[in-house]
């Protein structure tokens, strides 16, 4: 509180009355008289004088302040102190004089101002605070600068390799995955490349301190308002960000850190070294880090041989390969089409060349030579990952990331040892078996309309552990990027039928006399001797004998491939073993309906197929393979049968280590998907397929083999999946264009492919399987499959006009019943040469929704399928097929076919 507002001490020597009477020598009154307010120093001063002179006491106070009153003013002659201080020569005076005191360091609120002016800081205070603030900033910056060190480029920018090992612990490949970097000296980098980057990115590079204050301010402002966070970085800053900072976030704190490191680097490192480091650490797209890798990735030349046009192009790509790579990046952004990227790259390249001329780095004559975008080669992957190695590495990487032990970002930084399950010998043998067929049978030049885009996929799995021993992903991982052993979309056809049989043995068929709820619980387990109709164009019933109809009231008639009836007339009844051997569609479609398609689907999942690879189970054709599991999953599911119902997840990595030790070890976990009785009976039926049926090409002399062929409707894919007691292998074949620029790609027919009238699972796939497995099982102990225990009851043992199941009183009563041989296929073992089957109707089209679409329930006619026989017998007139189903509508009836 200011001095003039303090309450005066109690009056002494008469108080106010004495003061008003003008008694000299008395103590000071309540108010000190303003200077000059009385005629003499000792003159009396009362309210009348005060009011007459100033009008009011408030005015008197203000006048006193204006005339120099205040607590800092010493008592003047003729004016007494507030507390009776001695006056001047005439004695103590009246009024107020400032008591002597200390001067304030910060005069705030201001002592000599009144009202709002007291709270307005003086210019001295403002300037002092500003100086202190900037002084602190300078001090903090100095401390931060002193604490910053210059990281070493070789330690931060060059990622370590990850080393992948074969199953025998020998090194398979050392690579950072898709990382590709080869550092070069500045002398190997053309001046045109250096100046292209400088002209476009940082024209003051050789003269600046490492930062651009204006650019930084612009970037900070943009970040503050939520706009573009890019921009404002010099070459030095980009070098620091790429090579020295792990944190790549676009935040103010990281930007500040980048600035201090950049200033330090700019002050201590030569400019040429900074430029060299930047060009060697920057990312140019296509997995290329550094100018040398980029030169190879885009032009297949060394960096030293780049011309000015190529250099200007690569400087444009540095802005973001997603939008400047002429090959396009539509998988990342649909707007990054090849045409759009070419236009952007062309514009940016020309702008860079113009700036190089403007800043004196390129002559106009040389600039005139480069008016078009340079020709670039198609994207290629790391050469180390060619052949099958790239597919193996990708599969192992995915397994490591899924394990949760290492993130994808950590894996990219390198430093890990990944031990895989892959057997080098088996991988080579599978590739050799496939390439043999390519070389001997597939000739795109001779049959361009039939043999182009032919692809194979394969996987081989240890039945006792689930370890993936070998895969075939395609001809070359650097040219064909889809791993054909993994998800491809190729439907599996009749190789799906064992899951239907397993469901019938595990849960049984429903009682036709019971309602839907009760029938789910009261079932009859099915024996392989059970009889079902092999009639072509079979009208499919629900489990209760009623005719199946879709939502439009359309019925389903199941065709066999070749439109052949299989079995004894007039009902063409055939037991399930023979139906599997000859791959009869009508029998398994009706069996699936009797069991329930929900149980068929559950059976497939129990064996190891992934739910998202299975088609909807709303149509009868579900039982004959309209789903598209991968070769890896099909081999794993059949391995469940091979090991008496024990299911294990396929895996490709046994352990992961780094400098800190072991980070991950795979533990084999198993579950009993089927009882041994069920699994062993399925195996026993599948042995018949190889011994006397459609899979006889897959026989291995001296060893027991079980397996199943599969060919889809429209002849658009073919499979063979088979196993010995120790090894399960799946081989697929289909035609599908590699070129991603082709819109609406779809699977192509294989009629005439390889010079064959039609491709079956019994032809090239089983041939490849046999060729591979002959070598793969060498050295393995010869084992036999477990002898199956009798299972279930014989359903439909009394032939009837319809295939509606009626439980047999006992299995023993019909034990001797067996169907007569099929009229077309032979039961005897025949030559392993591929058959010359008759053609079937093509109803299989994954993009069709008009009744020709397999697995599509939206077309009304839905997926259908039939499969005839596929015997290598010379007399065979029907061939196997299983597809996604035709909705070939005849009148008001659906006809399902599967070729």
From TrEMBL:
| Annotated spans, Disordered | 1-109, 787-899
Q: Which transformation does this protein catalyse, written as a reaction?
A: [GlcNAc-(1->4)-Mur2Ac(oyl-L-Ala-gamma-D-Glu-L-Lys-D-Ala-D-Ala)](n)-di-trans,octa-cis-undecaprenyl diphosphate + beta-D-GlcNAc-(1->4)-Mur2Ac(oyl-L-Ala-gamma-D-Glu-L-Lys-D-Ala-D-Ala)-di-trans,octa-cis-undecaprenyl diphosphate = [GlcNAc-(1->4)-Mur2Ac(oyl-L-Ala-gamma-D-Glu-L-Lys-D-Ala-D-Ala)](n+1)-di-trans,octa-cis-undecaprenyl diphosphate + di-trans,octa-cis-undecaprenyl diphosphate + H(+); Preferential cleavage: (Ac)2-L-Lys-D-Ala-|-D-Ala. Also transpeptidation of peptidyl-alanyl moieties that are N-acyl substituents of D-alanine
Q: Which domain of life is it from?
A: Bacteria
**Gly residues: bias regions:** 83-94, 851-867
- Coiled-coil positions are none
Q: Does the keyword Transferase apply?
A: yes
Which keywords describe this protein according to UniProt?
A: Carboxypeptidase, Glycosyltransferase, Hydrolase, Membrane, Multifunctional enzyme, Protease, Transferase, Transmembrane, Transmembrane helix
According to the entry, every stretch annotated as the Glycosyl transferase family domain falls at 174-339
Q: Where do transmembrane segments lie in this chain? A: 125-148
Matching entries from InterPro entries are given as: Beta-lactam/transpept-like (IPR012338), Glyco_trans_51 (IPR001264), Glycosyltr_51/Transpeptidase (IPR050396), Lysozyme-like_dom_sf (IPR023346), PBP_transglycosylase (IPR036950), PCN-bd_Tpept (IPR001460)
Listed Low complexity bias regions: 20-41, 868-880
- Domain Penicillin-binding protein transpeptidase intervals: 561-732
Q: What is this protein called?
A: Penicillin-binding protein
Task: Please tell me the species this chain comes from.
Answer: Streptomyces lividans TK24
